[in-house]
# Entry
Amino acid sequence: MMIIQIILVVFFLFILLKVLNRFRSGGLKGKEMVGWVIFWLLAVAVVVSPNSTMVLAKILGVGRGVDAVMYLAMALLFFLVFKIFIHLEKIERQITKLVRQDTLNKTKKYEGTTRHS
Amino acid sequence: MVFIVLPAHNEEQRIGRVIRDLFQHGFVNVIVVDDGSTDDTANEAAGAGATVLSHAVNRGQGAALQTGNEFAIQNEAKIIVHFDADGQFNVSDIDVGIKKLTAENLDIVFGSRFLDNRSKIPFFKKYFILPLSRVINNWITGLKLSDVHNGFRIIRKETAEKIQITQDQMAHNSQIPRLVKENNLKYGELPVEVFYFENGQGVIGGFKILWDLLIAKINK
# Structure
């Protein structure tokens, strides 16, 4: 086993641990947890046995297994970033709504402007 | 009842003068939406006699205008005027605009710095940035306006109820004309004077607006 494989496996197992911890503290739903556990276990499998990706490469018609994994990883990353963008936008709008509600509640009674000058 | 809505973010230097000027011209309902300013904007505005609504955190000019609109509607405004807090507009243009709104029975009046020669627009802005943004905006909004990103607007209460500004940042300047078009509202343009200071949106600001509009489109 090459050093890079050991580093990656340790790193992925560390992430797996994090996922399980988040699930236990209630920050992750059951379905999401299962999805992420499968994802990171697959990642470990690919690192331990790189040749296993040849099956995937053959199905997809890509030359090497590593390439197939790279393409999929890129696509997945783009998708996740996109999802985060959309989600952030939603949160921004919710914050604005909250801030506005708070502002209007604070100054509900309007008795006209008190002119000083 | 006419409500003047001034969205303000860190305008302690200029806002007092604008408010006093508005009072001198006989406008009594002056609403400042202090958009999470970190300076003394709120106190300056209150000291000058305006009603101050404070956003706990900064949400952008579009968000501040929507808050101002909702407050004005709640308090029985008939006409709402969007005006800048930094003194770049001429207060005497408001009366002319309100007369235009009522005389021509319009739903909304947009200010435009291109309809007369009063505004001294910087060269690069006049012949490059603004014409470019006009083409893009007319295409996006479907409304032919001579000056698309002008913060001077006079709207009826009914119009404000139809136009919900969800573009929190500067893209509201494009969103409002689009909503006017979608709701088939009657609009007009009013020549207004714009005084130039250092600040303003450059080309990067323009790209930010396009980006905001794109994200909103995907998010719909």
Observations:
- Residues 65-106 of chain A form the longest helix (42 residues).
- The two ends of chain A are 82 Å apart (CA to CA).
- Chain A is about 80% helix and 0% strand.
